[in-house]
Amino acid sequence: MGRSLSIVIGALLLSACNPPAPAPVAPAVDTPTATGDATSAPAGRTPEAVTARADAAAPAKDAAAEQMIDERIERLLGDHQRYRAVFEQFQQAVAAHDATAVAALVDYPFTATIDGKRVVIDDAVSFAARYREIVTPATAAVIAGQRSADLMVNARGVMFGSGEAWLNGICSDAACKHFDVKVVAIQPGA
């Protein structure tokens, strides 16, 4: 009995981890158009109509993916709203090339890789002065273009791209009941 129960519980856990199978899609039927031209696209199956349906489904898919990201942040790191707010501030500051705003989001001392060497940056003023060396154009493009639905989240934090930047909570008390979300890493071509 105990083994059977273990197998059933294991199967339920595995099925909970697997996404549901996609709904079946009715096959396209090639029917002639009103002019009798069988080579024309069937009504409602024009490339524009297919694209419009795909575009309409994208926000729902993104919303579901973002919800999964938020839940994962809550489970592993804490308050997802705080992470989302810093994610958006960081992206906007990088896209605007606002060195001062980016520097305000960084945890110090900060170790940067500049010209292949590790350099310790002690404060926001020093970070802003070396901004262009730390946030290279390629790294800025990854950060600014990161879709929140595509973030990777683990116990180390929230990752942009392939590791070009990371956000994580920095505890402000011994029990870590209070924390600030900060940029903890920016690295070129991770």
TrEMBL record:
- Tell me where on the tree of life, at the top rank, the source sits: Bacteria
UniProt KW keywords: Signal
The segment annotated Disordered runs over 27-51
Q: Which residues form the signal peptide?
A: 1-23
Show the ranges annotated as biased composition (Low complexity): 27-39
Instruction: Specify the protein name.
Output: SnoaL-like protein
Biological source species: Luteimonas cucumeris
Taxonomy of origin reads: Bacteria, Pseudomonadati, Pseudomonadota, Gammaproteobacteria, Lysobacterales
